[in-house]
């Protein structure tokens, strides 16, 4: 019979075992091998049955076993050591505390702001650690020796004397920072992939968010995560007999998850209120997960005070229609800020100075912060400036279809006097998300556009994606070249302790650079052999779900071979990732799989969105090919791709395949996780691979991305290139053995991947970049733009915008020194510029007049530009024009050109393009300027 109500009964552990509760409730166990080994020793069979989930394990251990453990002195010693280790991890100083202490001793360390000229010239993601800076805790030293994930910073920074392992909400590990670094950072994301035991993720965005939190914890960065708790998580995937994707939504009980509820001092659960259209209330409770040192707050609308519809707001990740998604994003953004305020009030945690929105889903958090400031007496414009100063926005998609966009009237209905944010005019809210640029949809509210308008700093997630994002959103800054759009890039990274196989971690202590070829090759075979065993187990379970009987599944014992070149391909299944590109020429693929001397085998996994029938058809096509008796021992599709599967899949593959349509892959971190385990990459030059590809790390699949090539022809060409690489370079390199039976050239590539590429792809490097290049400048801007300063800046911008139509470049003169016959310039000569500029009601202090010079292409577009400021040399003439002058050195040969522009300038602007205003010469004004060095 089916139960009419479900609830959980938590175990009461014997007093000596109480520390197990604290260890289980802090998700650091998910990346700390010693703690996992401790839980496994509690009940090895129960550990396997629980899927490696300590909370489920403790709820199922027999009382007799607990009684035995409470008397087991050896186990209690291990338990004490693990609890002490967690205590030290939570309270000891780490990289961030070292930075704060260093700045307090020596004064603030200069930190690069968002580039003031060209985001395209951003700091490289593989930039070295600044001199004297401690190495991030998950980052291997150059020799390839991984530093333990809980390594502390060098001595010299005192440990807080009152530190203790918290039994309630985590004790803040960082006091309000007097340095240039923020006291706290709020990190908003619609999904978080921390561990399979907390299934609140669908794909790369959530896994990236989870790795961001873990790396921040390892580095001691005072991050606070904010998300939603989805009662059904993301769907579980299975296959029908004919290979069609099936979705299942298991119900998650928060009491069975590693969560605690945020409560008031009197024990009442905290309630976060929102107001829906017509004044209907929406209430949410707040669950806390502890990700090492980082608190993660998850809002849950499934509470008794809500009606049925409101309870379903947090039912599924990325489920429902437009209004359902809008309500989720309002709860995430507006409710998330309110949850943060409650958490800080109850725990004493420093209030966030910087708010980081991981994609546009959480964009409404900026509006809630504007509402707070308006309630304190600010007007909308001043509040907007103050909020922007402390906000960082990260865009993750180069695909416009991947951005949430809502009907204008739907958004308008959810705000205003009888809905949410009644103190803000609805038209001001709508203006933030309107696509007011060429080819924009005037009746759609764009969450990414709002995210950019509410953030003073923005970034893409790889160098190439930063460039694509600047082009994609250039319409928000009319008149500026894409290179100058204020969107920089921080290339994603992955959390090594989460994604590195234990065998790799252990051998790393012996330095991969000096490890013998035979030992390294044996390591790779061990990982491949373990993957083969797991694939067979998962494939058997999948076929049983598909209706196959035991008697017809004997062939699974021969699936895959631990000595055959193994290729992995696992990811979400939108069309641009091209799951079925490998099937373009099925005969040729069969030849590769069944080659008598150099066979390959392929493991494939991936989920299509439940509403994406096109993606489901791609899955079915792949599954039907994999079901063919001729190749089913060489190519397998594993359903229900998730973190648990991935942690064995990445290490067990020899080659990681990635073949998206360039440049539609923002970053693509799966190949990074594979590389950490010595897996070579075979990929289109897109995302991170475009940035860090070297022949020592793998192979680049040639692309046919010219405008004149159609989609079908492009797929044909790129599939053929993939087959050629596998046949002519990849397989021969793997099977080319020396007299010792080892593939020495392959092993050399593995070694180089581990020692040289591995340190670049770490989440520790990524988070350190966010701190230094985005969080610290945002904190300084937040402090500088108090309400008084924000009001002054808003007033100044309003004055500039009102007067800008009268700003013009009236006349440009250029004189060459020394004069050259026929006007041809020579290297080393100087061009004297005299420019007349009309400022209307503005003062010279309000603007900067610049010469923009550099090489020009065939269309006279300036490339590799330099910017030379011109100085005012004469006041306004009778027509109101002012004279500006400057010398321009001609220090390069070849086609050269220049232009003049006028930009607003103010000390509190983060970037010259921030106001989105520019004045350039008309054709008449530039007639005397001449054409140089053509």
Automatic annotation (TrEMBL):
It comes from the Bacteria. It catalyses: [(1->4)-alpha-D-glucosyl](n) + phosphate = [(1->4)-alpha-D-glucosyl](n-1) + alpha-D-glucose 1-phosphate. Its EC number is 2.4.1.1. Keywords: Allosteric enzyme, Carbohydrate metabolism, Glycosyltransferase, Pyridoxal phosphate, Transferase. Residues 146-166 have a biased composition (Low complexity). Residues 104-174 are annotated as: Disordered. Its cofactor is pyridoxal 5'-phosphate. Residues 13-102 form the DUF3417 domain. Residues 131-145 have a biased composition (Pro residues). Phosphorylase is an important allosteric enzyme in carbohydrate metabolism. Enzymes from different sources differ in their regulatory mechanisms and in their natural substrates. However, all known phosphorylases share catalytic and structural properties. Belongs to the glycogen phosphorylase family. PANTHER family: GLYCOGEN PHOSPHORYLASE. This is glycogen phosphorylase. It comes from Streptomyces endocoffeicus.
């Amino acid at each position: 019979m089916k139960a009419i109500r479900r609830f959980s009964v938590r175990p009461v552990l014997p007093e000596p075992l109480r520390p197990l509760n604290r260890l289980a409730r802090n998700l650091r166990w998910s990346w700390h091998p010693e703690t996992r080994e401790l839980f496994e020793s509690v009940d090895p069979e129960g550990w396997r049955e629980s899927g490696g989930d300590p909370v489920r394990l403790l709820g199922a251990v027999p009382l007799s076993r607990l009684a035995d453990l409470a008397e087991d002195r050896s186990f209690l010693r291990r338990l004490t050591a693990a609890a002490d280790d967690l205590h030290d991890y939570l309270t000891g100083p780490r990289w961030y505390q070292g930075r704060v202490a260093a700045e307090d001793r020596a004064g603030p360390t200069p930190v690069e702001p968002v580039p003031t000229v060209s985001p395209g010239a951003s700091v490289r993601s593989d930039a070295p650690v600044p001199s004297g800076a401690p190495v991030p805790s998950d980052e291997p030293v150059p020799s390839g020796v991984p530093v333990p994930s809980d390594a502390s910073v060098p001595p010299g920074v005192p440990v807080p004397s009152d530190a203790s392992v918290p039994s309630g909400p985590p004790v803040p590990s960082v006091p309000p920072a007097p340095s240039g670094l923020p006291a706290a950072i709020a990190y908003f994301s619609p999904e978080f992939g921390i561990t399979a035991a907390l299934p609140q993720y669908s794909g790369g965005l959530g896994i990236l968010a989870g790795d961001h939190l873990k790396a921040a914890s390892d580095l001691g960065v005072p991050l606070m995560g904010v998300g939603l708790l989805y009662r059904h998580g993301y769907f579980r995937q299975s296959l029908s007999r004919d290979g069609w994707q099936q979705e299942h939504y298991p119900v998650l009980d928060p009491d069975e998850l590693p969560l605690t509820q945020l409560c008031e001092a009197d024990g009442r659960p905290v309630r976060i209120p929102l107001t829906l259209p017509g004044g209907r209330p929406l209430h949410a409770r707040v669950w806390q997960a502890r990700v090492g040192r980082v608190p993660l707050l998850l809002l849950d609308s499934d509470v008794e005070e809500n009606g049925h519809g409101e309870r379903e707001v947090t039912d599924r990740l990325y489920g429902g229609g437009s209004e359902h998604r809008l309500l989720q994003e309002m709860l995430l953004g507006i409710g998330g800020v309110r949850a943060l305020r409650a958490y800080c009030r109850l725990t004493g945690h420093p209030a966030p100075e910087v708010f980081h929105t991981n994609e546009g889903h959480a964009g409404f958090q900026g509006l809630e912060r504007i509402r707070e400031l308006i309630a304190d007496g600010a007007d909308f414009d001043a509040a907007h400036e103050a909020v922007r100063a402390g906000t960082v926005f990260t865009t993750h998609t180069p695909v416009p279809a991947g951005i949430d966009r809502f009907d204008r009237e739907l958004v308008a209905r959810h705000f205003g006097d009888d809905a949410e944010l009644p103190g803000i005019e609805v038209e001001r809210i709508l203006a933030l998300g309107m696509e007011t640029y060429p080819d924009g949809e005037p009746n759609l509210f764009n969450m990414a556009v709002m995210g950019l308008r509410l953030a003073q700093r923005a970034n893409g997630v790889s160098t190439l994606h930063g460039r694509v994002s600047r082009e994609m959103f250039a319409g928000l800054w009319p008149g500026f070249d894409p290179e100058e759009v204020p969107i920089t890039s921080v290339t994603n990274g992955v959390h090594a302790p989460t994604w590195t196989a234990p065998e790799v971690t252990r051998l790393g202590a012996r330095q991969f650079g000096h490890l013998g070829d035979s030992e390294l090759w044996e390591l790779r075979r061990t990982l491949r052999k373990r993957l083969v065993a797991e694939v067979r187990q998962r494939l058997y379970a999948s076929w049983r779900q598909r209706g196959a009987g035991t008697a017809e599944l004997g062939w699974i014992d021969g699936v895959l071979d631990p000595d055959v070149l193994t290729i992995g391909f696992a990811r979400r299944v939108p069309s641009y990732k091209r799951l079925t590109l490998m099937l373009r020429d099925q005969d040729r693929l069969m030849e590769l799989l069944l080659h008598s001397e150099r066979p390959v085998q392929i493991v494939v996994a991936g989920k299509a969105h439940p509403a994406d029938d096109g993606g489901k058809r791609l899955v079915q096509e792949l599954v039907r090919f994999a079901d063919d008796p001729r190749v089913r021992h060489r190519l397998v599709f594993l359903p229900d791709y998730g973190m648990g599967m991935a942690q064995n899949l990445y290490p067990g593959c020899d080659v990681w395949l990635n073949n998206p349509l360039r440049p539609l892959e923002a970053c693509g971190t799966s190949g990074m996780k594979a590389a950490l385990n010595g897996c070579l990459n075979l990929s289109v030059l897109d995302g991170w691979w475009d940035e860090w590809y070297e022949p020592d790390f793998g192979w680049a699949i040639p692309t046919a991305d010219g405008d004149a090539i159609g989609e079908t022809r492009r797929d044909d060409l790129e599939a053929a290139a993939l087959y050629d690489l596998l046949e002519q370079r990849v397989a021969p390199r793997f099977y080319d053995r020396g007299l010792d039976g080892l593939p020495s050239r392959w092993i050399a590539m593995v070694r180089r991947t581990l020692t040289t590429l591995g340190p670049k792809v770490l989440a520790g490097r990524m988070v350190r970049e966010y701190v230094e290049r985005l969080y610290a400048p945002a904190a300084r801007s937040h402090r500088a733009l108090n309400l008084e300063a924000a009001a002054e800046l808003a007033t100044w911008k309003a004055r500039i915008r009102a007067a800008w139509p009268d700003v013009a470049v009236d006349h440009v003169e250029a004189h060459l020194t020394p004069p050259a016959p026929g006007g041809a310039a020579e290297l080393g000569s100087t061009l004297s510029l005299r420019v007349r500029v009309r400022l209307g009601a503005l003062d010279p202090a309000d603007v900067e007049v610049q010469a923009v010079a550099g090489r020009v292409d065939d269309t006279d577009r300036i490339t590799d530009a330099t910017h030379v400021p011109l100085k005012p040399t004469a006041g306004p003439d009778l027509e109101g024009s002012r004279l500006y002058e400057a010398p321009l050195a001609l220090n390069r040969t070849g086609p050269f050109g220049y232009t003049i522009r006028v930009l607003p300038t103010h000390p509190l602007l983060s970037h010259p393009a921030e106001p989105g205003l520019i004045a350039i010469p008309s054709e008449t004004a530039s007639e005397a300027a001449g054409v140089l060095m053509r």
